Amino acid sequence: MYNALDSRALGRADCYAQRFMRPGDYRYAIVPGHAQAISSDYPFVVHVKDQTAERKSAEMAQHTLRVISDGKKFSVAPATLTIAVGDMVVWNGGGDIPFAVAGEQDFFNSHRMVNECGFSHAFGMAGDYHWRDAFGSKLAGVVHVRDPDCTSDQQRRKWRETLAEGNLVMIADGKVDRTEVEIMTGQTIFFAIVKTPGISITDSRLLTHRGGAAC
Amino acid sequence: MAEIIAAVDETAANILIDTAIALIPPQSASGSGNLGPFVASYSVSATLVNGDIDLIAPDIIRVANLRVNWSANLGFGIDLSTILPDFCLPQVCVHIPCVGRVCTPRICIDWPTIGVNVPLSDFVEADADFSLAISLAGGIWKVEGVIVGLPSLRFGPTTAGLLLVIGAAITPILLAIPFVGLFLALAVDTILALIGVAGLTGLLGPILTPFVSGLRIPIYKQPQLFEVLPLEGPIDPAVHVTIDAIAASVESSDEDELVLTADISPA
Amino acid sequence: MSLTQGETVFASVHETALNDAITAFCTARPRYLAYGSPAFTPVTTSAETRMEAIGFPGVAGGIQWRLRLSIPRVDLFKQSNALPPELSLGPGQFSIELEAQLCIECRKIRIDPKPPRPDKGQTHGQDNPREPARDDPKHPLSELTCFRLRVFAVGHLEHVYTSTGEDGIALAIDAVEIVDIKPDDLESFLECLLFMILQAVLAGIRLPLRALRAGAFQLVPVVGPLIEDDQIKVRGIV
Q1: Whole-complex ipTM
Q2: Residue A1 and residue B110: Cβ atoms within 8 Å?
Q3: Mutation site, C2, C49, C228, interface B, largest B CB count within 10 A
Q4: Would an 8 Å CB–CB cutoff place C164 in contact with chain B?
Q5: Which of B95, B179, B186 is best to mutate for the A interface (most A CBs within 10 A)?
Q6: What's the gap between Cα C123 and its chain centre?
Q7: Do C216 and B220 touch (CB under 8 A)?
Q8: Chain B residues closer than 8 Å to A66 by CB
Q9: Min Cα separation C35/chain B (Å)
Q10: Which of A109, B60, B135, B264 has the fewest beta carbons closer than 10 A?
Q11: What confidence tens digit (pLDDT) does each residue in A12-30 have?
């Protein structure tokens, strides 16, 4: 199962979240994760409609789309999702082949996250994960993942409860609010990107010695 | 009376058969079979070591504790979804300031099928009776010990240790699977329990048995046109006699002896 | 009682098989039974062995001779074949019977009328030292003077090494008897001549023990080879 820490290529235990702040039709494709998010065809649509007066005072709504792969191509259902301005769409799924969400507009792209978006990753193996931006900014951090002590049923149950506890890392104004985070194996970190020129959250070990800056 | 008689007692027979068996080249086999509930591909190679010889009239060579040293490469796939319990990451929610609550969906992990390759080696022993078979084919006289019946292989006390070897081979493969680490001990224990010593002997027994049951102990092999002296220059050609008949038996008197007789005539 | 007794390996060859082996040897290498001086045997081949002529002053080229022996028939103790009364076969012995044919080239020598020169040992029997020795053509047997004898002998086995370095046996002659030659001194002379010849000939017929057990097993001799019960027996270890 693909479980590398790399927002450019989303695995089974990853999510990409994008918030849409303006009405319109946002076309996108689901492409293989290591293909630089290039696509010439955008078969799916997020249709963002104006908020109604009633809706404006409500909290942001989240819409979750499951990405399905038949081994040859990816799909989501519904192909056209209608949401309100300010809502968030979360993509997750895929299977064994990592994927990326490639929108027609630059801001709408999991390969290079720009603003009002996020990336979550559940860590499947213990270790120290030094991450940085594959596109060359100075943004970086480390996640320490430790195996829990699960020698007894009680410890196992306690560990399972911690899996539901989320960990948030905010990235804004060129800064990471928590550069060092410690979690247990199986827990999830949500990287919330407020506004950046376009970054990735990538395990340093996946990047070449030249810095691994992508196109 | 036979023209030529040659005989060895059990002491000499042990030495000669030790040598004869040691000269048998390694035998090998490959294929697939059941390793407990798993289907394993295998390639096995084995060499034989002589046991203790007992000559029994009229024509039996009994070998006790004939040893088969074997080494094998087993390859098998394990669908971990049949071994491990279903595991799902629960929904994880965070509160993003100025944005609101964002949640990941419940994510269920699909356990993969892993491929395991394990090199193993050990030995089995068997007691076997060989009867004397004489043949003349292609101008060559042969006397061989040919096994009687199907031997029963005895796996040694070290066989159980082979399961630990399998466990040690599986562990690093499992460790490379995300989220499995916490189920590692369970996975290994379950897999080894499913295979069990019975699974191992059940796979290896039918593979190794033909190595013994197909064994022919070479006792005598000479061309019918037997060279007494070789060519020794242009004026001294080789000298040959014809071996007209060969017989073999075990004779019992004050000791048991393996006796070969031959009749010859000038070539 | 077991065959191997106090050892671990036993091998025996009956006199029938021994005679087969000797026949095979003599058939493949007849030169061991056929000898001749240059007039009869110009060069050694597998069929016959070239020997020197008997040198004699005044006989050009020397006295030419030829010997043919038949394939010997061996009888191992206990005695099966008849022997002349002068010979007896004892335990551990063998007897041999064969035929010997000895031929000589008998020719007239031409007397040289010139005064003979002092023999300085350089003429090598030539009539005229200035003339080269004549290469006489081979004479047909009918021009030869030959006699044929039946020869009996007794002897014992010797443990030897063959030309290939293996353990083997050779037949060593102890006594020879020719029947009814007169005068007795001539009989003694010929018996001595054949005694010398047979010792040498049979010493060259070396049979490997490996062959005498048809290549069965391995055997390093410890006891024997010895003759008993019409067989040659050897006992030893692997």
Answers
A1: 0.89
A2: yes
A3: C2
A4: yes
A5: B179
A6: 33
A7: yes
A8: 105
A9: 14
A10: B135
A11: 999 999 999 999 999 999 9
What backbone phi and psi angles, to 5 degrees, belong to B147?
A: -65, 145
Residue A67 CA to residue A108 CA, distance in Å, equals: 16
CA A37/CA B212 separation, integer angstroms: 62
* Contact across the interface for A192 and B177, Cβ inside 8 Å: no
Determine which helix (DSSP H) or strand (DSSP E) holds B22, and give its type and residue range: helix B10-22
Residues 6+ apart with CB under 8 A from C207: B228, B229, C18, C21, C22, C25, C162, C168, C169, C170
Interval B182-203: pLDDT, tens: 788 888 888 989 888 888 888 8
How open is the CA angle C187-C190-C191, to the nearest 5 degrees?
Answer: 80
Q: Per the confidence metrics, is the pTM higher than 0.90? A: no
Closest chain A residue to the Cα of B181, Cα to Cα: A125
Q: B 223-262 residues with CB below 8 A of C?
A: 226-230, 232, 234-241, 243, 246, 251, 253-255, 257, 259-260, 262
Interface membership of B117 toward C (CB under 8 Å): no
3-class secondary-structure state, position A180:
strand
